[in-house]
Amino acid sequence: MPTHRPNTPTATESLDIYCIAIGGTGMAPLACLLQELGHRVRGSDRPLYPPMSDLLAAAGIEPAVGFSVENLDPRPDLVVVGNAVPRQNPEAVAVEERGWERISMPQALGRFLLEDRRALVAAGTHGKTTTSSMAAWTWRQLGADPGFLIGGVPVDLGQSFSLGGGDRFVIEGDEYNAAYFDRGPKFLHYRAETLIVTSVEHDHVDLYATPADLRAAFAQVIAQLPAHGHLIACGDSADVRQLAAAAPCAVTLYGLAEDNHVRAEPGAPGDVRAHFVDRDGRRWPIELQVPGHHNLSNALAVWAAACAEGFDPAAAAAALGSFRGVLRRLQELGTARGITVVDDFAHHPTAVAASLQGLRDRYPGRRLVTLFEPRSLTAGREFFQRAYVDAFAGADRVLLAPIFYAERLAAEERLETTRLAKDLAEIGVPLAVASDLDDLAERALGEAREGDVLVCMSSGSFGGLPHRLLRELS
Question: pTM value?
């Protein structure tokens, strides 16, 4: 196998950088940031659609459509390979055969954007997009100018990335692998100075065969923290507490339980007013615009990090109170004929349960109809069979889309939808399985009645279903 050229280019040189699969949700923002740094950025992907096509066009980047060796001419100084790129990709094969330097997306982020920045990384099975968005928004509201790269679009920030001008860089720390040649989790490349860990629950079973394998990845990123760093860890999770005990730096445990260093005191059900309580027992009022105890906990983590940074606790709470959420995270799209449509990213049973609890608080007394797509390789597995029963217990009606990757899962590995319907019926939650997304839409529109909340949950595009429902209701 050819020897790869040493990593000689530095962040200060102007380089010709080629991105394979440039249209990914992480790659496209990275390409824009690299262009903003003064590099020439080009790349390729399958046909792209908004918002990624618009994002790249606004930066003046025109990707080649399709993967071909010819796209690599002239020879780039550096090739960045997205984690969705298989080893057999013709461009990836050519780069390897020619011995050109290639790095993964998180390696590029570390090299070009984090060398002289203090990284605040939000990691965890759940909540990392919202938590990193809250942090970027809060730092900006407090007068800092953080850079950030987030896996979603915060409503008020308007985009998922910014170069920023301050010394802080906020990153969503994904535990998924970096590339086919860089199989470790992405967050190991980010050199966190401040690390928020929201949760550690078994997920991505295609990469982490056992819960212990996933915990080992989080143990690695915690062990990387410098002695002067800070771990903000959710003390409501026994697994997170256990991992935090080995941290080589200061630790703040946060959560709703009283034995945390800082804690949140929620208001009554449906009341957005709450309090944060610091280490000295002082109480700070907070009124969030995003629902659910999970978001209150996420906000508390960011508040704890901001206070540790030296920001005024009251000002930090006020900044968090002005945060209006992230697109596709319990996002209310609109109401027509008295029926409200909500778009949500939840796909893990714990996230589904948390979202439904948040919706109960936001829409008390209304019927919650959950349209769920088992989109990821993990979401469609029998592994979560029992957990989905507990998660959907918070719904009034469930409409289930086909398992997206059913053909990639053996029969014994797949979620048994008939058994899921039977188990939910026993606790009074009817579930119907749709044959396709058209059938799902017809069922939802046919059954919907005034006062309903239709919440669409998928970790993918869901075929544009949430917006389609609202259009047809209108």
Answer: 0.85
